[in-house]
Amino acid sequence: MGKKIDRAAGHMLAALLLYLFFVSAFENIWAAALCALFAALCLRRALAPLARRAPGREAKKRRARAEAERWALLDASAAEAEARALLEKAYPGQTAEAEILFLPRHPQGPPLDVNAVLDAWRGRKGGRLLIVTTSRADPAAHACAAKLAKPRVCLVDGERLVALLTAFPPPEKEAPAPRRRLRPVVSRERAPRRLLFGLLLLAMYLLLGNPLYLGAALLTLFLAALGWKKPPVPRRLFE
């Protein structure tokens, strides 16, 4: 709730500054109000992608880490099939003749070491071997994998796997559409926020003298008072 209040207060402050700018420019209250509203809507639409970009990247990384943890619990054949599909999407045509070996490890567990790489490489035939694991590999393991031949080895550890899953996320499962419920106009949870909005609108009326702010302030304060008059949820089921 605090973030919503801060966001709303920022919007109101921006609208007030735009209104004061247009009032000084046009010297007309109605023209200034309309221009300020239009400018605020355009500014919000222009800045919306920037506000969503950073949370979107973090959400993709969280989903990728959760997907890597899910891979660690899969059986070898299912994990290798998903790994092949992911690598083929990231590197088209480069995994057709390569053998994929999946080494299940917990992402938060100890890193993959040289011994695990050598054990996976010994006895393998073919030209190329892809070792995929869900845990981090230490630098010595990466260096060892780069030197191996017959077959050549490419090590995809947990860090690289999370990066690939972030860049090429799996398709999301369709969730059932949530039922829309009409929120009551008067609620005790909204009363503090409405009180703050009403006081801000009243302050704007006292500063600018616009009767529209006074009407909006009185209506908002009235709804806040109705919300507070509602009885709270009883704390006990049996008296």
How would you explain this protein's 3D organization?
This protein is mostly helical and about 240 residues long. The protein is about 60% helix and about 5% strand. The chain is built from eight helices and three strands, in the order H-H-H-E-H-E-H-E-H-H-H. It has a three-stranded parallel sheet with strand order 1-2-3. Strand 2 (about 130-135), helix 5 and strand 3 (about 150-155) form a beta-alpha-beta unit. Helix 1 (about 1-25) packs antiparallel against helix 2 (about 30-70) and helix 4 (about 115-120) runs parallel beside helix 5 (about 140-145). The longest helix has about 45 residues, at about 30-70. The protein is elongated and about 85 Å long.
Shape: elongated
Radius of gyration: 30 Å
How many H/I helices?
8
Strand count: 3
Class by helix and strand content?
mainly alpha
Q: Enumerate the spans where pLDDT stays under 50 for 5 or more consecutive residues.
A: none
Percentage of β-strand residues: 5-15%
| Rounded mean pLDDT score | 79
End-to-end gap: 32 Å
Main β-sheet, in a few words? 3 strands, parallel
What is the strand arrangement across the widest sheet?
Answer: 1-2-3
Give the ordered list of helices and strands.
Answer: HHHEHEHEHHH
Helix content: 55-70%
Descriptive keywords:
239 residues; mainly alpha; 3 strands; 62% helix; 3-stranded parallel beta sheet; elongated
